[in-house]
Task: inverse folding
């Protein structure tokens, strides 16, 4: 394997994905099960990563949390990618007024501090997992749209697109079969970085109590517990923090590796 | 007559600054008019920057003219995008890089409903035979071919929609010398076999002489000389034509 970055990143993400998929099989305890006899137990053979102040097993909570955190990352970016591809392609291909309208809309969206926009929306709607995926998706497509537009602007002038117009291909055909497939490389790289961003955003929101709501576990909301017990129970902070760190690192490695591979 | 080009002008506007203020314009075509007879082949020659490619793009409606008209004979050009095709100069840039040759060649067939699905493969094979390629190319990507082979694929794609008029914009100037001669012969052969009309654009008069019955000489967006190929090559009237002829000889 020549591309070490890509390989390492893929291994990390594959590892966490498998854990997330197999959660019910490998989790040693029920993640919401409260055990009054073992509050704030440090890591030990019975509780590998310790327990929190309600006696819940941290490892089990993290395994289930991986499901939530990763799926928020993937789905939010899926939504962002869909919006970004469509708007970017339309702006780049048609130019003129359509381009101006779409790109000014992008500028407006970029003017909002995303995090506070999300906070405000979550405060009005309820912070369910579904809402959070959608809101993160709806507020993070602008980079993709700009990237797609730039790619398409340069591809559009290439002769193979001119040749497609000359054989009478419809705009839809040209955009979907010729422009987007050739613009996808750099977009993929930014999408993978976007997944890392979405996971961080979710963690931040959950940490503030406006993300995934307890008792459902996500890596972010395990950390809420950690805040009040930081002095006595270091394990509640360290392990979810490490999980977030390593996952973000994994996605960044994949993105970096892909960039190298695509030249 | 299959095509009449009437008094075409094309100006490219130069914009400056963030307000896109018009800072001036460059005149690429300055009152170009000519006619193309059916089954003929019209050669258009001139140095780089004389407006040849701009003219080709305007004829193909890939770019609007600033003023002037392009009139096709309605009896012969019924469906413009089907009946008029173009072959570009650079075959390295003219094929969609992520598509297999089979998909590239079936596109015009599907778009213009030329062959039903079960006959697509047969039709593609016919096209490949026309341009001297075989079945082995079908599953490969454009990047796997040489310039000459790619240009043959571009020709096959242009022929797929069964066109009447083909604009060839410097179709051989990016190819090796040995392949240039083969391609010229292929163009001549296809023209008789498929009853095509050509507009053949080149900066090289020797090439134009080989293929055209009538010739236009362009300089700075204007036609400076026009006539039968034999006459122009025997007794050129315009000093610019003489210069081009001398350049082609050396």
Result:
């Amino acid at each position: 394997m020549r591309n070490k970055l890509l390989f390492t990143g893929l291994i990390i993400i594959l590892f966490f994905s498998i854990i997330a998929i197999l959660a019910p099989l490998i989790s040693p305890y029920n993640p919401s099960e409260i055990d009054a006899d073992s509050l704030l137990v440090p890591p030990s053979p019975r509780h590998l990563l310790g327990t929190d102040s309600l006696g819940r097993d941290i490892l089990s909570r993290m395994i289930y949390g991986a499901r939530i955190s990763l799926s928020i990352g993937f789905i939010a970016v899926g939504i962002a990618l869909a919006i970004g591809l469509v708007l970017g392609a339309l702006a780049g291909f048609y130019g003129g007024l359509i381009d101006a309208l779409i790109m000014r809309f992008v500028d407006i969206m970029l003017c909002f501090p995303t995090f506070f926009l999300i906070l405000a929306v979550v405060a009005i709607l309820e912070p369910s997992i579904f809402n959070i995926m959608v809101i993160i998706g709806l507020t993070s497509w602008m980079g993709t749209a700009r990237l797609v537009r730039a790619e398409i602007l340069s591809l559009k002038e290439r002769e193979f697109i001119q040749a497609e117009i000359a054989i009478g291909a419809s705009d839809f055909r040209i955009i979907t079969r010729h422009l987007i497939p050739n613009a996808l490389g750099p977009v993929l790289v930014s999408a993978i970085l976007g997944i890392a961003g979405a996971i961080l955003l979710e963690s931040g929101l959950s940490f503030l109590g406006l993300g995934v709501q307890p008792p459902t576990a996500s890596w972010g909301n395990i950390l809420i517990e950690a805040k009040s017990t930081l002095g006595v129970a270091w394990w509640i902070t360290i392990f979810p923090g490490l999980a977030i760190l390593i996952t973000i690192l994994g996605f960044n490695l994949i993105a970096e590796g892909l960039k190298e591979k695509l030249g | 007559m299959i095509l009449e080009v009437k008094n075409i002008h094309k100006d490219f506007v130069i914009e400056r600054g963030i307000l896109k203020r018009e800072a001036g314009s460059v005149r690429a075509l300055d009152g170009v008019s000519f006619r193309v007879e059916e089954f003929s082949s019209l050669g258009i020659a001139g140095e780089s920057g004389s407006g040849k490619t701009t003219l080709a793009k305007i004829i193909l409606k890939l770019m609007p003219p600033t003023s002037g008209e392009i009139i096709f004979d309605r009896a012969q050009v019924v469906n413009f995008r089907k009946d008029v095709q173009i072959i570009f100069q650079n075959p390295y840039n003219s094929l969609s890089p992520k598509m297999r040759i089979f998909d590239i060649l079936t596109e015009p067939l599907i778009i213009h409903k030329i062959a039903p699905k079960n006959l697509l493969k047969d039709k593609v094979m016919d096209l490949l035979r026309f341009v001297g390629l075989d079945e082995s190319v079908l599953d490969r990507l454009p990047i796997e071919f040489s310039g000459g082979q790619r240009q043959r694929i571009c020709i096959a794609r242009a022929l797929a929609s069964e066109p009447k008029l083909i604009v060839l914009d410097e179709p051989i100037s990016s190819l090796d010398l040995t392949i240039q001669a083969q391609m010229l012969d292929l163009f001549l052969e296809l023209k008789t076999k498929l009853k095509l009309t050509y507009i053949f654009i080149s900066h090289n008069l020797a090439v134009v002489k080989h293929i055209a019955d009538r010739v236009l000489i362009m300089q700075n967006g204007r036609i400076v000389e026009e006539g039968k190929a034999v006459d122009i090559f025997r007794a050129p009237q315009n000093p610019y034509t003489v210069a081009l002829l001398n350049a082609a000889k050396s």
Notes: The interface with chain A takes residues 57, 60, 62, 79, 81-82, 84-86, 88-90, 93-99, 107-108, 111-112, 154, 157-158, 160-161 of chain B (CB under 8 Å). The radius of gyration of chain B is 19 Å.
